[in-house]
Amino acid sequence: xxxxxxxxxxxxxxxxxAIARALGQEGYSLTVSARRPEKLEAAVKELRDEGLxxxxxxxxxxxxxxxxALVARHRDRWGRMDVLINNAGxxxxxxxxxxxxxxxxxxxxxxxRAVYLTLRESxxxxxxxxxxxxxxxxxxxxxxxxxHGQGWLAAYSATxxxxxxLSQAAHGELGKDGIQVTAFxxxxxxxxxxxxxxxxxxxxxxxxxxxxxxxVRFLLRTSPACIVPEIQFVRPGxxxxx
Length: 242
Ligand SMILES: NC(=O)c1ccc[n+]([C@@H]2O[C@H](COP(=O)([O-])OP(=O)(O)OC[C@H]3O[C@@H](n4cnc5c(N)ncnc54)[C@H](OP(=O)(O)O)[C@@H]3O)[C@@H](O)[C@H]2O)c1
Description:
By secondary structure, this protein is an alpha/beta fold. The chain has one domain: NAD(P)-binding Rossmann-like Domain (Rossmann fold, 3-Layer(aba) Sandwich). It is built from 6 helices and 7 strands; from the N terminus they run βαβαβαβαβαβαβ. Strands 3-2-1-4-5-6-7 form a 7-stranded parallel beta sheet, sandwiched between helices. Helix 4 packs parallel to helix 5. The longest helix is centred in the middle third of the chain and has 33 residues. NADP nicotinamide-adenine-dinucleotide phosphate (NAP) binds next to helix 1. The site of NADP nicotinamide-adenine-dinucleotide phosphate has 30 residues, from helix 1.
């Protein structure tokens, strides 16, 4: 069994990859998951070349059976889960009047339903870790759009507001078991997800993936008595702006 182990979803690029790297550097054995196997393998090779211990498990988080299989693979490989990073997500812009149902459903399924299902499947291992050392950690990547709904991103904003509510509720249920739950609410982060807005907001003016990973390092160091329900990461000058 690993000494400490973490599962990171959406770990093949951007925020998830930066968090996976930080956790690996902090000594965690990792399961890193994403949808596209080739992209995932390339990211995991990068991490392994840096000396980190990583298992790659492709999974489409929109499918319940693949979520369950992912958590089971993590359990079989590492035998424990101290940290769960629920990070896989998709953002599809568009006005409500024209938004197709399949785009709404995809965002609901990946951004919200999968977070719920992954947490549910992981609870037994998280409780074991919480009982052992009093501080199992769940980070759910929401968005600043989940705090202040954004026009043209209505479906996305709604899913991310759901993640904030789910995180609060999970804390209420699981806090007594030594499981801390934190929602991350970033504005624009320089990842492939923000390529579409690069001509208006240059990538160097965006929050960097490593900034978000620093949030995880901080949460690893706080005491079991210190609960951090959410962290907002915003850019200079406007608390509500993406
Ligand atoms: N970038 C931002 O400005 C920003 C701001 C606030 C919140 N966020 C949130 O941060 C999280 C990470 O996003 P990012 O910016 O790092 O974007 P990214 O670089 O595009 O990464 C998204 C990750 O999610 C995975 N993913 C997408 N759909 C999936 C599915 N159906 N099943 C499994 N994995 C799937 C992707 O894998 P594949 O490529 O294989 O699909 C990839 O690993 C998301 O939840 C996003 O909503 C981002």
